[in-house]
Amino acid sequence: MTNKAKLLSEQLREAILNADVSRYRISKDTGISEAQLSRFVNKICGLGQEASDKIGEYLGLQLVGPKQKSNQKTKGK
Q1: Has residue 28 got a pLDDT over 80?
Q2: For residue 49, which phi and psi values (nearest 5 degrees)?
């Protein structure tokens, strides 16, 4: 089993699909066309930075970096 991280676009798709609001509502509230949103969700095309930012902000998403590995050795006294 691989622990490969999901792409940001895939995470955004999942957030849209799992949102408590419809794609229609996301479209109307963000100003992104329903067609563009549908094409993105159906993996036909990507979204630009501005559209991604609008959707992320609308859904309350935050970008979180990877957890730091604890490979650092601590020095003893």
Answers
A1: yes
A2: -60, -45
